[in-house]
Amino acid sequence: MIDLNTLPAEHQYRPSARMREATQLLYPTEMFPYSHTPSRGLDLDHSEAYRPSCRDPQTGIGLLAPLGRKVHRARTAGAWRALHRAAGEIVWTSPLGFEYLVTPERTVALE
Description:
Layout: H1 17-26, E1 43-46, E2 64-67, H2 69-76, E3 81-86, E4 89-93, E5 99-102, E6 107-110
Antiparallel strand pairs: 1-2, 3-4, 4-5, 5-6
């Protein structure tokens, strides 16, 4: 049993099996606008670039999201921007400046 509320963030770059499972439980599908791709087997993306020199744990529930490889690369390259507002909520900004609130249940276009 995994308690999503008490699972501590981790120091290593790659999530542990327990962290991966917890992230997939919180996010059953890819956390990208209008995607319905199951999260199993997708990349787990750090919403902020991982910094090896940082002493704080950077791999945690509110800091990771499942993304397909193409979306992951587009976000890493800066074409799309993602901001975790809270665990379970990501605001995406498209290359054209459109914003979308993505939750495990739905996508909402923001105005």
